[in-house]
Design goal:
Blueprint lengths: L3 H26 L9 H57 L4 H12 L3 H8 L3 H15 L4 H22 L3 H11 L1
Length: about 180
């Protein structure tokens, strides 16, 4: 709501300025009768309209520049998170000693693909994929697909996220860790 009001005011200022200039142009060509106003007042109105348009363009340019910078930061963060997730997946797969075929199946499973979809993508039978997923679950010490996905989700969220959601403050989380040691 905070950003809507300035945007709306900026929009009104720009529309008013544009309307005044267009009205001035069209009034020369159309048979409109308007009562004349003093020349200094007319020039003052035009200066205000031009100033409003210049301010609008400047502020819009500033907002666009900030938006582009924020987008670049978000894309950079996403690339870093994606890279970190890829590293985490690779680390876990190495830790579990998965074969290359099991790595593929595990990755597709984490992505949420069904057994039939994985079999189709790997050009193999559903039975083979089921055997591979069972081997993956055994090596990862999980009961199924949901737990496998939860392992990675838990690693991504970390303790800080869990503490924040549960309402613990950093000092409480630290003191409970020290008490456990």
């Amino acid at each position: 709501m905070k950003t809507i009001l300035p945007v709306f005011i900026l929009f009104l200022v720009q529309m008013t300025g544009a309307f005044l200039f267009l009205f001035n142009i069209f009034s020369s060509y159309l048979p409109w009768t308007i009562s004349p106003i003093a020349w200094p007042v007319f020039e003052f109105i035009e200066i205000l309209a031009a100033g409003g348009l210049l301010i609008g363009v400047s502020v819009s340019g500033f907002w666009l520049w900030n938006s582009l910078r924020a987008r670049e930061r978000a894309e950079k963060s996403l690339r870093m998170a994606s890279s970190a997730f890829a590293d985490l997946v690779s680390e876990r797969f190495t830790e579990w000693k998965l074969t290359p075929a099991e790595r593929d199946v595990a990755l597709f499973t984490i992505k949420g693909l069904s057994t039939a979809d994985v079999a189709m993508m790997r050009n193999t039978s559903s039975g083979t994929v089921k055997a591979q997923t069972n081997s993956i679950y055994r090596k990862a010490d999980v009961a199924g697909r949901g737990q496998l996905q939860a392992l990675f989700l838990e690693d991504l969220m970390g303790d800080e996220f869990t503490d924040r959601v549960s309402g613990k403050k950093k000092s409480e989380a630290g003191s409970s860790q020290h008490a456990a040691e």
